[in-house]
Structures are given as structure tokens and as C-alpha cells.
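Q: Please design a sequence for this.
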């Protein structure tokens, strides 16, 4: 069931999200890529993470799904933006990261583990102790055959970090 958090981050936008698992479990914020809704994190994958004792939070980035869509802004100058001139863009990855932090604030969470796919991986990058996992032959999606392995790797990392945080 989708929920909406209002007045999120510096932009004061609405963010649609879902929570799966026990609310007292370590939270894992799943950050998806450009124009992809929270449902692009497959239910079975989210359930697998919850089955490892984690609280899963997946959300629609701004301009996706049921979150605020940024309207009325002129289109960005793509060649300029790719060259590093961001003066024509309506928002940046830093703004989107602030949205994610704002959602955590609205949910009363001081911290969360973050996993990102595609552009969501770029949003989630800015994190001490992060771990990059490369899987041979994997493309740009979450193939059904790898979902249990990915969920187990994420859960293993989270629980290792949780043990380190409490020692």
C-alpha cells in the first residue's frame, strides 16, 4: 500500500513510498533510477530483504510515479549539463539525495542503509563504509534468478554494519 509523505526536504515535495517488514528492523532505503517508480523494486526482492529481518523502504523519486512532478520548468540544456554547466537544470542528484534524507526524516529514522539501482546508485553514492558489488554478466535490471542472491548480499552487508555499529 502506497503512502505519501508531505513537505519533504528543502523542496517541500510529496514523496510516495512503501514500507515492508517490521518497523523496528534495520531500515534499508531502496533508491531507484530515473523515471522509475518504486514498483521497479520487485515485490519478491523486497519480501526477500524483509525475510532477512530488514525493514524495506522503497519510494518514487520526484518526477516519477505518485511523487511530486516538477512542472513548469524549461527543459535543461543537455549538452551544457553533460559538460558540467548545471545552470539550466531544475534539480540535481544532490537535490534528489536531499529528498531521500527528507523522507527518512519524515519517517522518524535517524539513519538507514541505502541500496540504489541505476541512477539511484548515483544518488546513494556520498556514504562512508559503502560496498560496491559487481556481478558478472548482470545488466541494468534485477533479474529474477539473481534476486535472492542480491537480497542475501545486501542483508549480509547490513547485518555486518549493524554489528559494527553496536560494538
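A: Design:
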Amino acid at each position: 500500500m502506497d503512502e505519501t509523505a508531505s513537505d519533504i526536504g528543502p523542496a517541500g515535495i510529496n514523496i510516495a513510498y512503501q514500507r515492508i517488514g517490521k518497523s523496528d528492523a534495520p531500515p534499508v532505503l531502496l533508491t531507484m533510477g530515473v523515471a522509475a517508480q518504486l514498483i521497479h523494486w520487485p515485490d519478491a526482492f523486497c519480501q526477500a530483504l524483509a525475510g532477512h529481518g530488514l525493514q524495506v523502504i522503497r519510494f518514487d523519486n520526484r518526477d516519477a510515479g505518485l511523487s511530486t512532478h516538477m512542472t513548469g520548468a524549461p527543459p535543461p540544456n543537455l549538452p551544457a549539463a553533460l559538460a558540467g554547466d548545471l545552470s539550466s537544470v531544475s534539480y540535481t542528484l544532490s537535490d534528489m539525495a536531499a529528498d531521500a534524507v527528507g523522507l527518512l526524516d519524515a519517517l522518524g529514522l535517524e539513519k538507514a542503509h541505502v541500496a540504489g539501482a541505476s541512477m539511484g546508485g548515483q544518488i546513494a553514492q556520498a556514504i562512508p563504509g559503502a560496498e560496491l558489488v559487481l556481478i558478472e554478466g548482470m545488466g541494468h535490471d534485477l533479474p529474477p534468478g539473481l534476486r535472492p542472491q542480491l537480497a542475501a548480499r545486501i542483508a549480509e552487508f547490513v547485518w555486518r554494519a549493524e554489528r559494527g555499529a553496536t560494538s
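Q: Thanks. Anything notable?
A: The CA atoms of residues 35 and 98 lie 17 Å apart. The longest helix spans residues 147-166.
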